[in-house]
Amino acid sequence: MRVTTAFNRLLGLPGVSVTAVCFEADQLVVDVGLRRRRLQCPKCSFSTAACYDTRPVFSTWRHTDMGRWKVIVRAGLRRLACLTHGVRVEAVSFARHRSGFSRDFEDLIAFLATKTDKTTITRLSRVDWDSVGRICERVVAEGLDPGRLDGLVSIGVDEVSWRRHHHYLTLVTDHIGKKIVWGAEGKDTATLDAFFDELGDQRAGQLQAVSMDMGAAFNKSVRDNAPNAVACIDPFHAVKTVTDALDVVRRATWNELRRLPDQTAAKKFKGARWCLLKRPENLTEDQAATLRQLRRRGGELWRAYSLKEAFREIFSGDLDPDQAAELIDRWCSRASRSRLAPFVKAAKTIRKFRDGILAAIRLKINNARAEGLNNHVRLITRRAYGFHSPKAALALVMLSCGPIELHLPHEQSPD
Ligand SMILES: [Zn+2]
What we know:
The chain is of the alpha+beta class. The protein has helices at 3-11, 103-115, 118-125, 129-143, 189-205, 216-225, 235-259, 264-269, 272-277, 285-297, 299-316, 321-336, 341-352, 354-362, 367-383, 390-401, and strands at 16-23, 27-34, 39-40, 47-48, 53-54, 59-66, 69-75, 78-82, 86-89, 154-163, 167-174, 179-185, 209-212, 230-233.
């Protein structure tokens, strides 16, 4: 078998034939020629036999590694004059437009980005993290289900931070399909308005429920744009309000302990954060022991903890809306009498959004499900912290939680 024939089979690049192979210091350079004579516009379906000119330099793409070798594909490309897009370098079928990587290589990196961390990917692939971000953007732009905004009836709106220093993304979740269907940089009314612009009046009119947090920004946009939707407060966010109140009490207690001359209590207490915030059934042995100690100690912190657990319980069972309403009211009066300032404040907030919270329970906007997706999104956005562009962070979120199917090179049908 000739070397070029062998490499044709090994690389599996559609639309090209290998003409030469040469080994350099740490890479393998494979020269290819396009089999197609007609020139194809990279941005549309326009094709022509007329060559505008030939690029004076070779174009190169990184392809999937072979053994320890980087593989560089090299070709001389021509330019064409598209009626719509003007003079452009012709498209190649094995790589996405304006990419320095083959499609196979990008699909592999995009898959890894949804599964593992930055250090693993950059070390394994020898590609820097921002390039990984741009790869994610290209894969998402091509692969995201174009019908993802059709037929939405129940959605959730949420904000997540994708970088330190207050960089946020707004994400829209389809509660039925359990996928994230839309996202953009920012977290104000205008950000969500942009979603409704894209959705259009007709599809927005079909929305029956929109769940969100208790901030004013999203509430206003939903009121203005989704006339038939019931505004619901995600149980997740309601519970978070109460959990945050507990955390304020916890910090105050810790600061008191730290001021004591004997530091043993403060040191012991330092690990208490997770045992207070986690669900009791998820505690480790040590955390459960710490919790029992806190219980024996009693006082404000234990009262705060009991209030938090009582509130969380309201959303964990199969209570009907009437029972839930009664328990929420009872909880609010208990919290307002607790003499714990953060809980008095939380009770006020919960009272204010009582209807929205009950609407979520009535429409069965499932807390566990939303929380599961939420936790996954948070994991992914933490991974995106190293990116410099919100578009890349958003692309990674959509790759992991959006309606898109990723295929590895060997899973694609050979052409
Ligand atoms: Zn074109």
